[in-house]
Amino acid sequence: MIKVGKEMHGQKLENESTAEFNVKQVYFDQELRQATFIEIEKKEVSNKKDAIPDHHAGEMLHSIQASGGQFTPDNYPVTDDDRKEQEANGMMIVSYAQLNWYKDGFRLGENVEDVHTSVLADQCSYRSLIKAEVLTEDGEELGKVKEVVLHPDGRIEGFELSEGFLSDFLSSEQPFLKVDNTVKYQHDKVIVPKDYHHSLKST
């Protein structure tokens, strides 16, 4: 099983390109059944040893020095290579299906397709789930979401809960709420059926 906060969120994705990809956010469907999309920060890593000097940068640097100025990190001339690198960097949204899970982490598939951010309009983010209250339909508080646990294919297995109302009744300090089709996400809260606390397990 995969713990999103520990093994996905903020982690680097292995890939074949020269860029680095880091997971910034994980999204789930509103029914809390499946991880759907991943928000990734892309950063192009240029090889400084192989970089070809930009003669325009040299001209600008000489101009700065000739006018009595000095080279500082603040006035270093922007090169064509710098512009290309900035354009290559940024945030992107990809489908969870484009990730491959290995024992040592996630790998980003080839030919990654970036999707429009509009797909996130009806999604639930990992950030919004963490610390969300878990309540029964009749208002009994079972705790708060501390961690989201996934099957490698993206299916949500359940939530680890922080200590809550039922913590004193469990032998472990980490109650686990298994997710099924009766669990819902409404108004930033996780709602479960009455008496659902009987299905809580210890991890």
Structure notes:
The protein is mainly beta and 203 residues long. It has helices spanning 4-7, 55-66, 80-88, 126-129; strands at residues 2-3, 12-13, 19-29, 35-44, 90-95, 99-102, 105-108, 123-125, 133-136, 141-150, 156-161, 175-178, 184-186, 189-192, 201-202. The protein is built from 4 helices and 15 strands. Strands 1, 9, 10, 11, 12, 13, 14 and 15 form an 8-stranded mixed sheet that branches. Strands 2, 3, 4, 5 and 8 form a 5-stranded antiparallel sheet that branches. Strands 6-7 form a two-stranded antiparallel sheet. The longest helix has 12 residues, at 55-66.
The percentage helix is 10-25%
Secondary-structure element series: EHEEEHHEEEEHEEEEEEE
> How is the biggest beta sheet arranged?
8 strands, mixed
Number of strands: 15
SSE-based structural type: mainly beta
Average predicted local confidence, pLDDT: 79
> Tell me, what's the shape?
elongated
Q: Unreliable runs, pLDDT <50, ≥5 residues?
A: 48-52
Number of helices: 4
Strand content: 35-45%
Q: Kindly provide the radius of gyration, computed on alpha-carbon positions and rounded to a whole number of angstroms.
A: 23 Å
Tell me the span between the first and last alpha carbons.
13 Å
